[in-house]
Amino acid sequence: MVYLLAATLITTLFSFVSVELKKTTAQIEDQSYHGEGRFKMKNVKRMAETPMVMLDVLTYAEIKIGSKVYRLLVDSGSSTLAILGKKCAQCEFRFSGQWYMELSPSNVLSCADPRCSGHYGVNTCDSQSPKTEACPFRVAYADQTSESGYITSDIVSVGQLLVETHFGVITKATPVDSFASMSVDGILGVGTRAINFGNPPFATLPEEIYLKYSLPSILSMAVGVQNSDNSGVLHIGGYDPERYTSIEWTPMTSTSGWYVVSPTHMSIGNVQVTNSPSDFGKTIIDSGTTFTFVPPKIYDTIKKVLQNNYPHLPGVTSSFSGNDIFNSGQCFAMDISKYPILYFTFEGGVTVAVPPKGYFSPAHAGGVEYQCFGFASSGVSSQFTISSTQTILGDTFMSSFYIVLDSDSNRMGLGILPANAHILIPPAGSDVSPDFTASSYLGITQTSAMLILFAFIPLVVCWQFRQMNPDSDPQSILIASGLPVAATKYGTM
User: Fold this and answer.
1) Which residues, at least 6 apart from 317, have a Cβ–Cβ distance to it below 8 Å?
2) Least confident of 162-166, 393-397, 457-461
């Protein structure tokens, strides 16, 4: 009997140890991807972590460069880190003194440096530029904004991690208020080096961190719009499983400089709006673009499905003084909780849900929250340059997930936020009632129409409200007519 009891205890203990050993091994393996190296390091997070803040529909992080902290737009659609410089005579600043000035001229990259060649089409060191001059740079974006200046280096801190890296000091911005109008001091491009200054020898800030701290090439972010306090997070060198309830993986490439994925289908409720994966064209994950841009064929189908299947929803038809959510620059103080859920399927058969709180972009003025439909049609105009065969998954897609961009394993992770964990993914061909939509999300009480005085929808992808128009309807607001920087921060040159 004693032997039997002892054997039972030993067997039980062995089983417990075995389970705990397997659990610990799994934890160690997972920690290799979220910042604690190949072995568990007690109370240590090696990956860089810094908050991301949603300011209306602009997402920024505060990064320390040299001795000063700067507010930078976080942009996965470009790769260059650039800050307004003191010598920028054609710039407006967030406030006086919020500019960069290097402590030592020796940090400035010279024209004589062999790396100073060919970036973004600038003829960098021609006969009119002595070799002693600073190496110039120029970056242009799809929203027709641009910045130029010179290249320097300094110590940059992200959370507890710091590295020395090259970045641009802006001496000219077009338009002049492109940063100040958004209350930021510059831009943090977190794409890959293939488009950093247009010259691969320049590593990006994330790549410098990966290299110095022997971290995996993984960039993760939650842009924050669906959190109650509009806060998000940026992780460099790993990802945090505590940020999501589950995660889905799909193939991704990043060798072109952009993070490219392959959606295969999109549906509104149970109604499919695409016919084949080719409908999307090249698809980029871009935190610097507020809206989600889709080819005209997809956008027109989205509009048609909403108008035919959901005409009772506020803003779908001309229910607000003859205006609707599809007109240029229309936003309304309205309840969006009954809008349908959008479903995206990606390569590998992964299907995820985007609730109305994700694909509507909130904007605030006069103490009122307005809802702006967060989809727009791709195309080329005098205002922006996005190929009509291209899709850009901007903040109105990304805000529904904790996004993991894993360049080591060539995959993107779509982490389901706790706020969206209750949303079911219906099986293919199933019927989804409009009432199944995000009923748990509480919208704003419908009031009256709000007409934004803007010409094109691309010009409203980042809402920077300048003033109330005292002569207009109390619900109408005037948005800055200057092109907001965050509109489509997708590097094109």
Assistant:
1) 307, 311, 324
2) 457-461
Span 61-78, pLDDT tens digits: 999 999 999 999 999 999
This prediction's pTM: 0.79
Distance CA 72, CA 60 (A): 5
Residue 233: pLDDT band (50, 70, 90) is very high
CA 370 – CA 213 distance, rounded (Å): 43
Q: Strands (DSSP E) along 196-289, which ranges?
A: 218-222, 231-236, 246-253, 260-261, 263-268, 271-272, 282-285
Query: Do 76 and 393 contact (CB within 8 A), yes or no?
Result: no
The predicted-structure confidence for 115-141, as pLDDT tens digits, reads as follows: 776 554 444 565 445 556 888 888 888
pLDDT at 331 exceeding the cut of 60: yes
Residues 6+ apart with CB under 8 A from 140: 120, 146, 491, 492, 493
146 to 170, 234, 393: CA distances (angstroms): 10, 25, 21
Distances (CA, A) of 203 to 67, 80, 116, 240, 440: 22, 9, 14, 24, 44
Mean pLDDT, residues 7-22 taken together: 41
Which residues lie across from 45 on neighbouring strands? Answer: none
Question: How many helices (H) and strands (E) in the chain?
Answer: 5, 30
Query: Does residue 207 contact residue 237 with C-beta atoms inside 8 Å?
Result: no
Q: Per the structure block, which two tokens stand in for 337?
A: 């909780």
Q: Which two tokens stand for residue 138?
A: 């120029």
CB atoms within 10 A of CB 439: 11
Q: How many of the other CB atoms lie within 10 Å of CB of 136?
A: 22
Distance between CA atoms of 235 and 223, rounded to whole angstroms? 11
Q: Are 345 and 265 in contact (CB under 8 A)?
A: yes
| pLDDT tens per residue across span 348-378 | 999 999 999 999 988 878 888 889 899 999 9
Whole-number CA gyration radius for the chain: 24
**The token pair that represents 485 in the structure block:** 């920087």
